[in-house]
Amino acid sequence: MQAPSTIGLTTRDETTAGEAGHGIMRSDAVAVNGASQRELYEKRQQIYPKAVHGFWRNTKWALLAIFLGIYYVVPFLRWERPGHAPDQFLLFDFAGRRFYLGPIEIWPQELYYVTGLLILGAIGLFLASALFGRVWCGFACPQTVWTDLFIAVEYFFEGDRNQRIRLDKQAWDFNKAWRKIGKHLIWLVISLATGGWFVAFFHDAPTLFTNFFQLKAPLTAYVFASLLTATTYIFAGTLREQICTYMCPWPRIQAAMLDQDALSVTYRYDRGDPRGPHKKGDTWEGRGDCIDCRQCVAACPAGIDIRDGLQIECINCALCIDACDEIMVKVERPKGLIAFDTIQNIERRQAGEKPRFVIIRGRTLFYGALFVAISGLMLSGLFLRSNLDVSVQRDRAPLFVPLSTGHVRNAYTLKILNKANETRELEISFEGVKYGLLEANEIPVKDNKIVVQAGPDRVTQVRLFLSADPEKQDDRSSHMEFNVRAILDGETAHAKTVFISADQSKNRDDRDED
User: pLDDT in tens for each of the 514 residues of the chain?
Assistant: First the structure.
């Protein structure tokens, strides 16, 4: 018996076995000028998923409630911060150029932490896919969560699968109109709540919602709330499975993450085939447990037949498992004809071996080690991060200024970042320039050092001048470093630059002569 392909992903639009030899696609042929032509695109067939009940459906409802709860509650969580910083626990503050996550405050200079989080998310998806297939797509993806919510509204107004099919076929009357209008109105309310709440992650949520309904919020808040309302309504209400099949790249990428030991929603053909109708009282000898009822197809939100193997449209939502288990109970056969399983386990059972789930594999070790390593780097960086940072910019026009004393002077601008929530006294010194003299505009210099006040949670700019005798320098361009030290706690920061004491073109002339 030939097993269906489960690792090579297929789509419903690919050629069938009988048609492949003639190069005929499963789309309708049309005659143009007497010649048979294939349609480039197959018209979408409306999918009416049937309501199912069982463990996996209940799990999806529970996760939906948890994810939506997190989405709608998190913007209103408070975290007290000193000064004028917003008290929102999670906030992408574009206006203040900050990212806040509880006690963590990320500055624009530290954007690599956000990049690290995105990389961790990607590797986490790789690891989850290698272990459990497309578990993200079936249970946690926002497209899945909101589509489930929209389908629940659809069930409420229009009924189950057969009722919705009949309603769409019947002529417009009052009953059909109020059901359709009611459904779309609730969809719009959910979409608006989705878009509005997403904007709340970028503004102080209580203030935003007060201003939003008083038409005092920033224009960007209305623009992005409208865009997200429209995309939620179209994606979850109309396009649904087409987003997963045609727009999302993950179904294609995940094929590289799977192997024959990855758990996926699987039709156990070793037990189900040969399939066919079954009447009560008939023997089960010489046949499989599948009675070809197609309830797994009716329950599938993508409208596919899981018995054809793993396909690009399958998001591993596991609803076909509940639908099949319900039928197995009715025909008095064991549950689990469709279940989370691996190709290797099917082959092991056919060979008379005991099935097992192999977690430790090459790819899972690689993804796991990479995840742990990057997490360790980010955590160590957060724990060791300094509240003091400095950058320096040297004036380039002119490169230096000759003084009447025979010295030359270079000008520098220091930008000191004080991440602490209090004003700090900072001592600025330098090293690398022999017999250099430090000067500053309207700031006294003592022992060739200056002391400045750096305000809390801000960048302080300091203008400095450094002069020295060019004859006493080792080279016409000297590497040097500015040192900034917090007087109270001793925290330091450093910025490297150069001190130019002569025209660099003369250096080139001298080298040419040598």
Answer: 444 444 445 444 443 333 333 333 333 433 444 444 556 666 778 999 999 999 999 999 999 999 999 999 999 999 998 777 789 999 999 888 889 999 899 988 888 999 999 999 999 999 999 999 999 999 999 999 999 999 999 999 999 999 999 999 999 999 999 999 999 999 999 999 999 899 999 999 999 999 999 999 999 999 999 999 999 999 999 999 999 999 999 888 887 888 899 999 999 999 999 999 999 888 999 899 999 999 999 999 999 999 998 888 999 999 999 999 999 999 999 999 999 999 999 999 999 999 999 999 999 999 999 999 999 999 999 998 889 999 999 998 888 999 999 999 999 999 999 998 889 999 999 999 999 999 998 889 999 999 999 998 889 999 999 999 999 998 889 999 999 999 999 999 999 999 998 865 444 444 444 4
Nearest to 90 by CA among 202, 195, 196: 202
Token pair in block for residue 506: 């003369």
Angle at 476 between CA 471 and CA 477, to 5 degrees: 135
- Collect all residues with Cβ–Cβ distance below 8 Å to 115 and sequence separation of at least 6: none
DSSP letter string over 263-328?
-EEEE-HHHHPSP----TT---TTS-S-----HHHHH-TT---GGG--BTT-----HHHHHHHHHH
In contact, 433 and 469? CB cutoff 8 Å: no
The rounded distance, in Å, linking the Cα atoms of 156 and 168 is 15
Contact (CB, 8 A) for 278 and 291: yes
Output the six-digit token pair for 361.
């594999």
- Residue 451, SS3? strand
Domain ranges, ordered by start, for the chain: 17-43+259-350, 143-248, 388-513
Q: How many whole angstroms separate alpha carbon 442 and alpha carbon 463?
A: 10
For 462, residues 6+ apart whose C-beta sits below 8 A from its C-beta are 413, 414, 416, 428, 440, 443, 450, 452
Q: Are 37 and 31 in contact (CB under 8 A)?
A: yes
Helix then strand count (H, E) for the chain reads: 17, 17
Question: DSSP 3-state assignment of 467?
Answer: strand
**3-class secondary-structure state, position 399:** coil
Give the class (CATH, top level) of 388-513.
mainly beta
Residue type, 497: T
Instruction: Answer whether 0.70 is exceeded by the pTM.
Output: yes
For residue 196, give the nearest of 238, 233, 227 by alpha carbon.
Answer: 227
